[in-house]
Amino acid sequence: MNKITILDGAMGTMLQKSGLPLGSCPEALSITNPDLITDIHKMYIGSGSDIIYTNTFGANEYKLEGSGYSVEEIIPASVAAAKQATVGTSAKVALDIGPTGMLLEPLGTLSFEKAYDMFARQMKAGAEADLIVIETMTDLLEVKAAVLAAKENTNLPVYVTMTFEENGRTFTGCSAESMAATLEGLGVDAIGLNCSLGPNQVYTIAKKLCENTSLPVIVKPNAGLPHPDGSGYDIDEKGFADAMEKILALGVSIVGGCCGTTPDYIKALADMAKTKAPAERKLTPVSCVCSASACVKIDGVKVIGERINPTGKKLFKQALINNDMNYILNQALSQAQAGAHILDVNVGLPEIDEKEMMVKTVKALQAITDLPLQIDSSNPEVIEAALRIYNGKAIVNSVNGEDKSLHTVLPIVKKYGAAVVGLTLDEKGIPTLAEERVAIAEKIVNTALSYGIKREDIYIDCLTLTASAEQDKVEETLKAVEMVKEKFGVHTVLGVSNISFGLPNRELINKTFLALALGRGLDLPIINPNVQEMMNIINAFNVLSNNDKNAENYIGQYSVETQEKPVVNNEVDITYAIEKGLADEAKQAAKKLLETEDVMTVINEKLIPALDKVGDNFEKGTIFLPQLIQSATAAQSAFDAVRMSFGTKSAQDKGTIVIATVKGDVHDIGKNIVKTILANYGYRIVDLGKNVDPKDVADAAIKEKAALVGLSALMTTTLGAMEETISLLREKTICKIMVGGAVLTEDYAKAIGADYYAKDAKQGADIAKEVFGK
Amino acid sequence: MIDIDKKEVLRYLGYKDTTPDEKTEALIDLCINEICLSASPKTVYAVFELDGMQLKNTVITLEGKDIKNHLSGCSRCVLMAATLGADVERKIAQAQVCDITKALVLDACATAAIETVCDKLCDDIEKEIAPLKLTMRFSPGYGDFPLEMQKAVVLVLDAGRKIGLTLTPENIMIPRKSVTAVMGITEEKRNPKNCDTCNLKDTCTYRKEGTTCE
After folding, report:
1. HSE of A523 in the Cβ direction (CA atoms, 13 Å)?
2. pTM, whole model, 2 decimals?
3. What ipTM describes this predicted complex?
C-alpha cells in the first residue's frame, strides 16, 4: 500500500442528527428509508472516504429481535444502499459487523459456537460487499468467532478493530499485544482500534499495535472525549486531523472516525492525509503466545508447567474419569502461583472422550487463569477442537517428522495461528545421533515454513531420553538442542523430568539436566514448577546468562527472607480444628487419630459429629456462613487424610448427587458452597457447573445413576429454566430433586415440581441424609 | 479507588450485630483490598424528559404501576448503569476453585462495592442538578417494573459500548456486579426503600428479623 486509506465517519451520529429516536433500530432504515442511508454514504465518499461501512452494525439476530426484520432482509438492503452510493466512484463497501451484544462464556452465557452461527448468518447475507470489517469489539474470543465465520463463509478481506480503554485494555481485559498476536495468526488483513476515546488518547495504544504486528494498522477514534452533558465531543475537525497526523507518523495506514465524527471531520482528515504515504515501521520478529489478557514473549527462558497430564498420576486419572474439573483447575492455579509462564494441557485417557474433555478443560482453564496454554495431544481432531475455542494464541504440542503428522497437524496450526512444537522423531523412532535429530528438525521447520507458519512460531523438541536406560544419549539430546538453535534460529523445548526415570533421587538428576540444557540453549523447559529448586535454577541461569538485567528479578526474589510457613499445631483436637476451620491442623489430627483408631471410627465418631455440631451452630445462628464453609473445608482435608490411608478407593459409597446451576444463570457460588458441604458426608458429587442445559442435567443424572439432583437459580428470570429441567428429569429419571437460590421459596419449589427446597447448604446436607437414608 | 463499607460486607455475609472471629475478620480485610484493586468501576447516565411514562426522543416507555408511582410528579428522570468490570468476576471465579470461603467473602465485598459506586454516582448527579434531588434508585425487576426493561435501559444508554455492560437473553447483567436503575428528579428527597415493591420480600432475611436493608 503506498497511500493512506480513508474510512468513513460515524453512521449513528448522522442518523441521530436526522432525528432517529434513541433506542430504535437504525438498521431498519436501510429498508424503510434507503435513500437516507445512501445519502449519508455519499457524503462520506464526497469527503474523501475510500471505504464506507454498511448500516449493519447491530444487524444480528439478537439485536434485530423485535425490529420486524431478519438478518437476511436488513443486510442485503444495507449493502445495496451502500453500493448505490459508490456508483461512479472507486469507493469500496465494507460489511460492518458489530458485537453480538452478549458476552461469551465463561463471563457470559453465549457459547462460542452460537456466536459463530450468528456471525455466519451475517457474513452469508453480506457476501456482496467488497470486504468485511469487524468493529467495536471488546472480547477477543468473540472476534475470533466472527473472523472464522467470515473466513469460512466468504472469500472477502477481513479488517478487525477493537475498542480500548485508556489503560490499553478492552472492557474484557484484552491487550493490544494479544489482539495483534491472535489476529495476525488467524490471517486477517488489517487490525486496529475504533471508538474508544479521542485521537489524542488512543495514540499510545496505536503505537503498541504498530510495534506488535506486521499488518496494516487501522485507527478510527471518536471526535475526542464526550461532553459530560451528552451534547457532543470535545475536538473539532481541525483538532481531529492534527491529532491523526501524529498517529499516521506511527505507521498507521488506514484511518477514519467513529462516534461524533461527521463528513466534515473526514474531509479534514482526508485533506491532511491524501498527500502522505504510510510511514515505515520497523519490526523485529518476536515469538509470543498469549491468552486474551496475557502475552508471553519467548525472549528468554519461559517455563511450561507439566502438571495437567494424567500420565503416571493416579489422582489425575481419577479426576478425569470423574469429570472433576476442580482438581484440574487447582493444578493450574498452583502452577501459576509457582511461576509457570505457560501451561501444558494433556487430558488424553483411553476411558474418556479426549476431544470433549479437552474443549471443556480449555474453556474452564481460561475462565480462571490468564496463562497461555499448550494443547498437548497427538490427535489432530482434538487439537483443532481446542484451537478453535481457545482465546488467544496457543502452542500445539506436537507434530513430528512423519509426513502424515506434518500434513495433518500443520494446516490446523496455520489456520488457527498457533505456535507448534516439533518432535525430532519419525516413523523410524527417535534417532540416536544428534545429527539425525537435526535432520528431522530441518524437515519439520521447512514443512512448517511451506505452510506459511512463521519461523518464530516453530519450537523444536530434541527429546529427552531416560538416563538410566540410555545414558550415552543424554549428550546427543543436548548437542541437538545446540545445533537446532544455531542452524535454524528456532526456539527449543524439552520435557525435562523424563531424564531421571528409574534412578533414585530423581530431583537431583532433573535439576542437573535442566542446568545443562539451559546452558546449551533450551528456551522452554517443560517442568513441574511447584518444585522450587527447579525454578531456582532458572532464576540463577537468567542472571548468569545476562538475561535478568542487573539481577533485578533475582534480587527481588531472594533478597527478602522467605516467610516461614505458619507452624501447624499438632496437638489440636480434631473437633476443635474443624470447628475453627483449621485445615492443616484438621489433617494432622486425623492422621494422628488413624494411628490408633480405625477408619470408620474416625469418620463416624469424630468427623461427622464435628460437622454436625458446626451445622447446628449455623442453624442456631451462633456461627455464620464463612465459618460454616471454613469448617467444611477443614473437614475436607481431614477426609483427604482418611482417604489417603484408604488408598484412592475412598469411603465414598453413599451414592451420587448431580448438581448444577440452571441454564441461563451464571450465579453459581451458592451451588459451590453446597458442593463443599455435601462432599464431606461421603457422597459422590458430580458438579455440572453453571448455565447448564436441561438435557445435560438429565443425561448426567442417568449416566451417573444419581439418586438426588440439586439445582440452583438466583434470578426470577431463570426459574423457568429450573422448571424445565425438573420436568425433563421427571420424564427421564426417578431421582429426587432439591432446589435452592435467593428467589426461591418452599411454595414455589413445590409449584415447579421439586421434591425439596433447601434454604441453605446445611439444609441441603439434611435433605441428602433423608434421601440416602444415611 | 472505591470505598467498601465493611459493615455492609458483614451484613451480606449474614452477620447481624455479631463480630466475626479473628480469622474471618482478616479474610474480610484481605478481600476488601483485593476487590478494590481488581474493580474498574464504570458508570453512564442520561437525563430524559418524561411524557407520561414515555422518555422523550426515545422509543422507551417505562412499564408498570410501581415505576409510575415512583416517578409521580417528576417531569424528568435519570437512567443509569454501573459496573465493576470483568476482572472482579474473574477474581471470584478463581477463588471458587481453591477457596470457596474467600469466594463468598469476595462476592459480598463486590456487592458492597457496586452499591458504593452507585451511591457516588447519584451524589455526583445531585450536585449537577442541585438544588433538585434524586429519588432512590428503582431497578428493572423491582415490583412490577419488568426485568425486560433492562434491555431498553442498556440500549438507550449504549451501556455495552460505554461501560462494557451486556445482558444475557434472560436479562441477567454481565459482568454480574452491575446495576441499572431509574431515578426521578424531584424538588425534595423522598421514597425511602419500600419493601412492597421488592421481589425478594418473601425470602428477605432482613424482613424476617424485623429490619430492612435500608
Report:
1. 21
2. 0.93
3. 0.92
